[in-house]
Amino acid sequence: MSQYENVTVIKKANLYFDGKVSSRTVLFADGTKKTLGIMLPGEYEFGTDAKEIMEILAGDLKVLLPGESEWISISGEGEFTVPANSKFKLQVASITDYACSYIQE
Amino acid sequence: MSQYENVTVIKKANLYFDGKVSSRTVLFADGTKKTLGIMLPGEYEFGTDAKEIMEILAGDLKVLLPGESEWISISGEGEFTVPANSKFKLQVASITDYACSYIQE
Fold first, then answer.
1. What pLDDT does residue A15 have?
2. A15 and B57: CB-CB below 8 Å?
3. B40: nearest CA in chain A?
4. Neighbour-count burial for B62-96, b at 16+ CB within 10 Å, e otherwise
């Protein structure tokens, strides 16, 4: 799926880490939410509320999921899931384009 | 209007200047197009195809429109229009969030 149809987009961006990470919120008719974001090179730690499915559309990064000691490498496209109410770390080596789905359980 | 409803969003980002400028494309039912973008601090020159109406949602920047010798300053919210098939320059002093409308004439 290369595009989201019949959605609502919030105009204002979400900005993190001095804008090195930014995203736009997309709302779906079924009440679900995704964000489309860009991460510039850097090291970041994020916390989740809902469970998150991170789809990497393009990029080069390493991910440390909660409770793990091994970093996962993603080059190009990839996907990882982060449990609700947890923290994960990212080492972004080149500009990374992502779509994040928030899963209410 | 704080959000765009009943639209299609292209998932993949548009990236310029090593990702210091990025945007997402939003398509409307009437066939028109806008982009929602972020510009990090820096100096940029852009060219237009269609006429562009740039709505600054937040930021701090100066704009040099084609044929002008005076820079326009925008802090916070603002708007400027760029003719089709022309070039304009930007000096972005702090992270700038924008919505750009492409006007076919």
1. 97
2. no
3. A19
4. bbbbeeeeeeeebeeebeeebbeeeebebebeebb
